[in-house]
Write a structure and sequence with these properties.
Blueprint (H helix, E strand, L loop, with lengths): L1 E11 L4 E4 L8 E9 L5 E8 L10 E3 L5 E4 L8 E9 L7 E10 L6 E9 L2 E14 L6 E6 L6 E7 L8 E10 L5 E7 L2 E7 L11 H41 L1
Parallel strand pairs: 1-8
Antiparallel strand pairs: 2-6, 3-4, 3-7, 5-6, 7-8, 9-10, 10-13, 11-14, 12-13, 14-15
Length: 254
Amino acid sequence: MCTHLSDLLLYVVGENISIHCPVDESRKLEFLYFQKIVDKQDRIFYNGYHSSKPLEPMPNTKMDPKNTIMHMFGLKLSNSGTYECSYKYKHDKNPVNKKLMHLNVTAFFTKPVITHRCGNENGIPLECDVQCDSYNGLPGKEISWDFKGNITKDRWKVSNRVRDPSSTELVNISSTATINCSGGEVFAFCFIDDSMSNVSVCSPKAPPEAPPTMTIAVIAATVVCGLVGVLLLMICLILRRRNTCTETGTSTES
């Protein structure tokens, strides 16, 4: 038996992989098997080729036309392990050739989704809950926090929880930081794997703008002046009409 040195293959959940067997393509194969080693003796057949009989492959695998490469689709954590490619050439008196490969499938949490809710009095925040949620990562990890601003460790506390596992053997996690706002504005940062999200909390709400009193006064004065002007114009027209009528009457009597 000839065993080749093993390769280390690093992939992420959901990715596809192509595992190559170092076959001499100028020679005809008797068989070629891709198998996963579950212990020193047992093997699980994934895919392969045999010159004289059909084989039952795993549903998420496919062989290339030359039967030297196995494609595996939609990797899961459970696909991690040691794989063996064993093959034999036709009419070859040499023993079976073998190549070992170690596949490590990992996962990274999504960028944290950060939200916050604050209790306040007269627009001044008293306490804020900042929540970070991240999805589809490896079990056993937690979200970490950092805070910037006029804040001491006794003014914040963190609670973590693991949410329902997703359908891909991964977990979703959530973490909430409760912040006392007595020191003013605080910048909260949450981290998981290589991702970070941040938000600013505990800032007083801007007071409502004062009504533009001068503008209102000017508008009011303008309206009043306009009304007075119209009234004076009407009075002038009425008086002029009366004078005209009086002059006409006097002229007739004469």
